[in-house]
Amino acid sequence: MSEPLLKVDNLTQHFPISRTFTVKAVNGVSFEIWPGETYGLVGESGSGKTTIGRSIIRLHNPTSGSVKFQGKEIAGRLDRETERMLRRDMQMIFQDPMSSLNPRKKVGDIIGEGLDIHHRFATSKERDDAVSEMLKKVGLSTAHAERYPHQFSGGQRQRVGIARALVMNPKLIIADECISALDVSIQAQVVNLMKDIQAEIGCAYLFIAHDLSMVKYISDRIGVLHLGYMVETGTTEEIFSNPVHPYTKSLLSAVPLPNPEVEKRRHPVAYDRVAEGIDYSLGTEHLIGGTHTVLATDEELARWTA
User: Fold this and answer.
1) 201: which of 107, 168, 244, 262 lies 20 to 30 Å off by Cα?
2) Please, what are the averages of pLDDT over each run of 10 residues along the chain (306 residues)?
């Protein structure tokens, strides 16, 4: 494709709480996702990562800004054709696999619901075969289609959530911290499963996570979010080998190392935005090189790169 699969430009998401108070969750965030790539979105809790994912897929109506998916604007009022395209070609894997699955439905019906809504198959046998094939693809058996969500472990439920998203053959999957509730060994299995499926069907991921080591493993490019602002973006190599923003440096310094001798000497870098006098609303996006950008004023950039 000559244009990005998803283009987010100056996305803003505010939530009015009262007449005098508004939560400014996302402030002017911009990024692009190309077909077949994985874009990692990292940041601390409350930075706006999940809000961005939900705004893109229209679980929230964006306050302002532009979101283009496959060349069509999806941030404003949607006509019927665009809405069907969005529901068909963009899917979401939610953070909590238990609360996102209907406890009253069998797994086979949960996975096949999208197929039923969009009339993907002419006969019920074709539909059941597609559900069974997807269950096998995510490491479950066809017999699991007759079980209910509470009969599965956390890792198995997350696989059901992945199967539900993938059965539609979407172009983009928003993975909202889909591994944070899983054991470390299960996390590796789920991430490897996502990479295998991406190689097979060519889908793109917006991978939202806290775990920087996992983001480094799966992502092609990374965006660092803080207090609703995109403070730094770049390829995985650029972010991990040459972080510029002090918040990014602080995040990377907090990653534990598997070597106990090195871990003893590791000193996390503290970051205090107020003490350093950093005002994100005054910063502009500076290109460092390649695709590496940093949100900063001219004085801040000169100080950080000196």
Assistant:
1) 107
2) 88 93 94 94 91 94 94 90 91 86 92 88 88 88 91 86 88 88 76 86 91 87 94 94 93 83 84 90 90 93 90
